[in-house]
Amino acid sequence: MIKKIEILAPAGSSESLKAAVNAGCDAVYIGGNKFGARAYANNLSEEELLEAIDYVHIHGKSLYLTVNTVLKNPELENELYEYIKKYYEQGLDAVIVQDLGVLHFIHKNFPDLPIHASTQMTLTTAEGVKAFEGMGVTRLVTSRELSSDEIQEIREHTNLEIESFVHGALCYCYSGQCYMSSMLGGRSGNRGRCAQTCRMPYRVFEKGKSVRGEEDKYILSPKDIMTLSLIPDLIGAGIDSFKIEGRMKRPEYTALVTSIYRKYVDLYLDMGRDKYLDYTKKHQKELDEDIKKLMDLYNRGGFSSGYYKTHNGKNMMSMQRPNHSGVLVGEISQVKGNRAEIILKEEVNSQDLLDIRMNEESIYEFTLKNGAMKGDKIETNFKSTAPVKKGYAVYRTKNDRLLNELKEKYLDHDVKQGICGKFIAKIGEKMELSLTHQDIEIKVKSDIVEEAKNQPTKREKIENQLNKMNTTSFYFAHLDIILDENIFIPAVKINELRREAVSALTNQILSKYRRVLSKKNNETESNDGDSIASSHTLTQSGQEKCSNNKSKIVVHLNNRIQLEEVLQRREVDVIYYGTNDTLLKDILPIARKVNEVGKQFYLVLPHIFRKETYERYLSNIEILRDPLIQGYVIKNLEEYTFVTEVVEHQRFQKEIILDYNIHTMNNSAKEFWIEKAVNHFTSSIELNYKELKELGCEDSDLIVYGHLPLMVSAQCVLKNTKGCIKVKNKIQSIDDIEKTDELIALSNEVELVDRKNKSFFAMNVCNYCYNLIYNGQPISLLSNKSEIDRLTPYSIRLDFTFETRKQVKDTLDEFIRVFAYNHPMEDDVKDYTRGHFKRGIE
């Protein structure tokens, strides 16, 4: 028997929640008024959310609350407990979590509350979830970049439920790894305030020359995904929950997408794979019509099937238009003055919104007064300033009839729950009404039934009164009425009995979900602040020796040319070396050179550690265990498991350092890692000076210089604009590096320029087949020496990427002058940003 597949619908408002339930979802995910990843949705108030929890439970559904942002220390320590407590007691089914500090806190204070690991955690293998085993996590939400084969691999190695996105918007960046919106405007995606910078236009240059046509402006804008054709493969891969994106969309969108996926998933579950494939083949027209409805409601340049069967590519992108494309319905056949004739390729309706376009650029938009059939010709006036021409396409961006049908079917009426009833009225006894819903049965009694003195109460009247259930969530699927003859019952008494019975049934259903926090949990909460503070104090004391001296100077780089310059600097204590442009087999000679000059060598692991990368590192395990490598800088949970369980870092005396990609924005997150014997962090790049001071930096590296990566993407800017060139590392072939002074990273040859003329550099990390998009402005805290001294970070860190050897030399000269010798600053970095050190984020 095929297992049940959950249809998980988005609910950005109360209306969307009801639409999802009426359309047949099994569960909804929704945000409250805090801590959700869609801060600009019509999120529910506390009272509305409490009512929503009851509403879904009465209808036999589940509600998952999004707490899927990174929390600052005061938020977690002062607000999170009371925020969760009310919903926990009401019967909240699960929380969706990104921040490991939030996960740690919720599990400690609400140990029986299921936790879903958000896609914002960037989980790409089953190894990643081992980091939080035994901490209440019941489900992982996979990264959207995974193939169905990779998901099947996860299924074979974990007992957790697997949830994956099947429809809706797709981020360009791996979720949880995007800082673009944050750095450009202070609206952090990790805080639920993404400004959709991937939907903005960019010009692309390679070596200063444009590499694409003017019409392809939106090079970072993916199409929405639609996976109806992949249902058999996704179920076969072991996905338990089909997740629909769209908390910012209208309720009609939620209703349509939910109902269509409900329809086809149920067909598959009823028929099995072979019969389902045969059915969809024979009913291709029906499937096409359903897809057209989805297109009518929202699409960006059509749909893609996401990454399930494709690693990346231009066919997944909507480069000409970043928003709703609509459906092609006609073409301009004639233009006279400011009047255009349109020949229709599809039926259109009164109040449809049509858009005349040149390529994908909107020229003129108008609302139809009257509908017309396919093949008809219609006319419209347009503004004289609109350059409408014969041959231009006409798209429909609002299908008024479809919206009205969805509203009438799913929004105007609630789907009711069928119950069984039994009404007994015998003279001289109390009348009785029993209601049964699934395994719950209630029975209520009322006044004693009297014999009729005049006109007896008829069965039909009693039945009519009992069936007045319009204001309830129920209807009688079956109703038995047992009566003595010649009885009299006032209608008001029947109504009172019905209302009392329905209320009792409702309370009985909801009582199954109610929780009361145990005394033990309350004690945990009351001491929570002390617990976190205590563990953090231990961390600081463990670093005391370093904190009392000057901060160490750490340099992070990826290539040998820059390394040659850094090796000469005795003031640099530690080298963090990445493998963007270096193969693992070449690491030990580099590490030996670093060790020989008395510096420590730490290997920086990749941004993403998918199965293929895991296997590559596994095949080089002896290199990774070599004593020339003092430790590892890790960027994701997969790498933590790999280093602890495979490399066996403790056995081989290797230190683990968390990069800023593993968010430690609060003490609870640090406590999570301290309990795993990891106590060396990298300060968040999204906290300002005051927040860093309050959190403490004595156990952390602080990045004081570098071009920061703003996006990590499975897509490739160069491939999507010019074609895949599978860049090989030029540096490996250079024999006389002393004479080389060129821009190191090949990626620097690909430049993105936004509408405000800000530059970004796209790095092709072909070693691991992902893209990094860097801020064109480096961060520099050179002029903030006094504040950094007050922070007393364990290390200050300089990140070098695109810099020439001379630029590395000049930058190091100045930072060493200021930070190692306390000399006044002579020459600051050109065209720099302080990042969030001063301004911070919301």
Specify the helix fraction band.
25-40%
CATH superfamily of the largest domain: Aldolase class I
Instruction: Please identify the structural class as seen in this structure.
Output: alpha/beta
As residue ranges, the low-confidence spans are: 524-548, 728-747
For the record, the count of structural domains works out to 4
What is the quaternary state of this protein? single chain
Region (Disordered): 521-545
Biased composition (Polar residues): 532-545
InterPro entries: Pept_U32_collagenase (IPR020988), Peptidase_U32 (IPR001539), RNA/ubiquinone_mod_enzymes (IPR051454)
Pfam family, one: DUF3656
Question: How does this model look, in words?
Answer:
- The strands form 6 sheets. Strands 25, 26, 27, 28, 29, 30, 31, 36 and 37 form a 9-stranded mixed beta sheet that branches. This protein has an 8-stranded parallel beta barrel with strand order 1-2-3-4-5-6-7-11, surrounded by 4 helices. Strands 9-8-33-34-35-32 form a 6-stranded antiparallel beta sheet.
- About 30% of the residues lie in helices and about 25% in strands.
- It is built from 27 helices and 37 strands.
- The protein has 4 domains: about 260 residues, Aldolase class I (TIM Barrel); about 90 residues, Translation factors (Elongation Factor Tu (Ef-tu), domain 3); about 90 residues; about 300 residues, TIM Barrel.
- The longest helix is centred in the N-terminal third of the chain and has 21 residues.
- With about 850 residues, it is α/β, with parallel strands linked by helices.
- This is Peptidase U32.
- It comes from Anaeromicropila herbilytica.
- Pfam families: DUF3656, Peptidase_U32.
- InterPro entries: Pept_U32_collagenase, Peptidase_U32, RNA/ubiquinone_mod_enzymes.
